[in-house]
Amino acid sequence: MELPKEFQPTSKEKIKLPIRWFVEIQKVNPVFKPWTGETVGDTYGNKKVLNFYGKPEFAELGILRLMEYSGWQGVWVDTYGNAFRTQYWPKNKVKLPTKQSNILKRIQDKVGESGGCFDVFCWKGDKVIFIESKQKGKDSIRDTQKRWLQVANLKCGIPFESFLIVEWSLPKQ
Questions:
Q1: Rounded to an integer, what distance in angstroms lies between the CA atom of residue 130 and that of residue 117?
Q2: Whole-model pTM?
Q3: In terms of Cα–Cα distance, which of 128, 172, 170, 157 is closest to 118?
Q4: What is the spatial distance between Cα 22 and Cα 173, in angstroms, rounded to a whole number?
Q5: What DSSP element (H or E) covers 117?
Q6: What is the average pLDDT score of the chain?
Q7: SS3 assignment, position 11
Q8: Where do the structural domains in the chain lie, given as residue ranges?
Q9: 135-142 long-range contacts, CB within 8 A, separation 24+
């Protein structure tokens, strides 16, 4: 899969699915720069604000930006805000194209709940990738995500290679 150089997998994370199988999901560990410009107002519950291309972004939107600059289209799957977003300042809600909407709906219907989808959903032609953003040492894969991953693969045919964990950190000071 053609990914930006920043997202070329460097390791794999072993995840135990609800059916007790272990799978290995591709993983990368980039260092993201904190935003040092003008303070932004709403930080969505105190999310880290990072610097991507000289603009403030949350990690999920910065990841989306890097994918877009590599020719992908996509969205931040904002499950808490129940929206698909491509930006946050100003906030927006976007609709998915029919094909991508159907992929998510099929998985969600089989999971039986809305939670668990990875943070960023991207597509390029017939290829799709789901990217989970985790701050190193602060986040881990939740049970709802394990269930979603399992259903996406076993019941909807999304290969495990179409998932990526971006476990980012800040520069050491």
A1: 8
A2: 0.95
A3: 128
A4: 36
A5: none
A6: 94
A7: strand
A8: 5-168
A9: 135/48, 135/59, 135/167, 135/168, 135/169, 136/29, 136/167, 136/168, 136/169, 137/169, 139/167, 141/13, 141/15, 141/165, 142/116
Rounded to whole angstroms, the maximal C-alpha distance in the chain is: 47
Q: For residues 117 and 77, what is the distance between their CA atoms, to the nearest angstrom?
A: 7
Give the number of residues written for the chain: 173
The amino acid present at 157, given as its one-letter code, is G
23 bridge partner residues = 15
- Residue pLDDT, tens place only, 80-101: 888 999 999 988 999 999 999 9
Contact 130, 74 (CB under 8 A): no
pLDDT given for residue 2 in this prediction: 87
